[in-house]
Write a structure and sequence with these properties.
299 residues, mainly alpha, ABC transporter involved in vitamin B12 uptake, BtuC, 88% helix, globular, disordered C terminus
């Protein structure tokens, strides 16, 4: 709880420090209802993906998230054809695949990356074929592939809010078990933690976060939002606590900065968010490389 409160406090301080500079831009944006929904969705997605992204980076499960994101496109297509909320349909497909893949990881004779190599292209191809059956599917397809946060509807925002509550509640309740199982599954099992249940829940959470992020950056780029802020924070942080505190700041800043650039420069929102996040990573990585190089020379 203290970790989450510290993260929120740090974000509030960062927002207050930038308020005088950002005030004209923010109030201009808030005049439009669609931007209000987009900002709310962006902040929620930035926090969610960042916090869970720490575990993704530590467990090296980015490819798993990528497979679920691409597979979710089949659920999106089914929702479009059925005339229901595409995010709800994608939610069912994503959670189902996440639970199935965890079982496969433990029982199949095939390596997990081999199974993921099947899931990713197969379900994405199914989604594209299903969307092709819908007249005028191309704009819808581009929106879900690369994101369109400025078009977030009230129903989609409600889904994002619900997933955020579930994810943050679970992380608050089981964060110690998740972290323990992430670093040493055998020791966690000996300590009485039900590792199988904890990791299955982690994969389901990962699917939920990915589905909630589809409208922000799309199925193609959602893994970047999970991995890049956490990787940047790992370069900067000296402890796991610092990493958990820095990652939401970096993720939220990338989402909000990308949205501002998208709005004022007429750029696609998803790629703008990912590019800004990538530039932060490159800047930190290059500066860290120079520092390490200087230390080696001086030594």
């Amino acid at each position: 709880m203290c970790l989450i409160l510290c993260t929120i406090f740090a974000q509030v301080n960062a927002v207050e420090g930038c308020l005088s500079y950002m005030e004209p831009l923010v109030f201009d944006i808030l005049a439009y209802p669609f931007m209000q929904r987009a900002l709310a969705a962006g902040v929620l997605v930035g926090v969610m993906t960042s916090l869970l992204g720490v575990l993704v980076v530590l467990r090296r499960s980015a490819f798993f998230g990528d497979a679920i994101a691409h597979a979710a496109l089949a659920g999106v297509a089914a929702g479009v054809l059925a005339g229901c909320n595409p995010l709800l349909a994608a939610l069912g497909v994503g959670v189902g695949i996440a639970m199935s893949l965890h079982v496969v990881e433990r029982r199949s004779r095939l390596a997990l990356d081999t199974v993921l190599g099947f899931v990713l292209p197969f379900f994405m191809a199914v989604g594209v074929l299903l969307l092709s059956l819908t007249p005028g599917y191309q704009p819808e397809l581009v929106s879900f592939l690369f994101g369109s946060i400025l078009t977030v509807s009230r129903d989609s925002l409600l889904v994002i809010v619900t997933i955020t509550v579930v994810v943050l509640g679970f992380l608050l309740r089981f964060r110690h078990q998740l972290i323990f199982a992430t670093f040493d599954e055998d020791a966690a099992q000996l300590a009485g933690i039900r590792v199988g249940l904890v990791l299955t829940s982690y994969y389901v959470l990962l699917a939920l976060v990915i589905i909630a992020s589809i409208r922000t950056v799309g199925t193609v780029l959602v893994t970047a939002l999970l991995v890049i802020p956490a990787a940047t924070a790992k370069l900067l942080a000296r402890s796991l606590r610092q990493m958990f505190m820095l990652t939401p700041l970096l993720g939220t800043a990338s989402v909000l900065g990308g949205m501002l650039g998208s709005y004022y420069l007429d750029l696609p929102s998803g790629p703008a968010i990912v590019v800004l996040s990538g530039l932060l990573f490159l800047g930190v990585g290059l500066s860290q490389g120079k520092i390490l190089g200087a230390r080696r020379k001086s030594g």
